[in-house]
Amino acid sequence: MKNYQLYGMGAALVDTEIQVSDAELDQLQVEKGMMTLVDPERRAYLLEKLDDHLVHSQRASGGSAGNTIIAASYFGATTFFSGKVADDDNGHFYMRDMKSAGVATPDAAFEPGITGKCLILITPDAERSMNTFLGASESFSSRELDLQALAASEYLYIESYLVTSPSGKAAAIAAREHAQANGTRVALSFSDPGIVEHFRDGIGEIMGGKLDLVFCNREEALHFAGTCDLNEAIEALQKVCDEFVITLGA
After folding, report:
1. Among 1, 155, 199, 208, which lies 20 to 30 A Cα-Cα from 46?
2. Count of CB atoms within 10 A of residue 186's CB?
3. What are phi and psi of 89, to 5 degrees?
4. Angle 87-7-4 (CA atoms, 0-180°, nearest 5)?
5. Is 109 exposed, middle or buried (0-12, 13-18, 19+ CB in 10 A)?
């Protein structure tokens, strides 16, 4: 009998959502619909330029896998999440917000530093353009995993953003191996077209042999297969997972 239906792992980011126009997105030189890693200086610049919008902004615990786990919890699933936060206001907010959503987490080990943040710019067509400062999440590693909870979960859910960090990629591989050794099924989200395009080999390492489930959108599927033909992408996915979901858009 498994204790959790879903165990997620990924970057623990505090999301701030801001509504902007397409013209403002162009002026800020933000690539629409993509996730871009930013340094503190770039983030400060964006916040300065968008100061008038911050009055209506919202702060919430997030990150790719984090948002999925929160949604699953609200739908009634028993969930667990492993991420890494710092000993700052955002870090404590993140853990409180997860708890209030009904998500179980490891005993918090707040470390010095800055909790990761994601500035999400939303245009009128509902497209999200993400500007991510990883902060403490950049050093997410196997130390943040709760192997007992992972083995006691029906599914492990991994975000492909972890591939951008050597320690994050190693943690994803270790989690996948531990899950498969303990009868826990493994699901992977490709997360972002740019991630698939630039880290294709690393994603393959995370996947290992064949996974149970893959989530991606059309563009990510095409990048993964290295093709412009969706049917060829489908054939490529059939070789690496038992089931997959291809969305149109996000």
Report:
1. 199
2. 24
3. -60, -45
4. 115
5. exposed
pTM of the model: 0.90
Per DSSP bridges, beta strands 153-159 and 185-189 are parallel
Burial class (CB in 10 A: 0-12, 13-18, 19+), 23: exposed
If one compares 107 and 116, the residue with the highest pLDDT of the two is 116
Tell whether the torsion through CA atoms of 201, 205, 209 and 211 is positive or negative. Answer: negative
Q: How far is CA 153 from the centre of its chain?
A: 19
Q: How far apart are CA 197 and CA 177, in angstroms?
A: 24
How far apart are the C-alpha atoms of 163 and 152, rounded to whole Å? 25
Give residue 136's pLDDT band: very low, low, confident or very high (50, 70, 90).
very high
> 152 exposed, middle or buried (CB, 10 Å; 0-12, 13-18, 19+)?
middle
Domains and CATH numbers, the chain: 4-247 (3.40.1190.20)
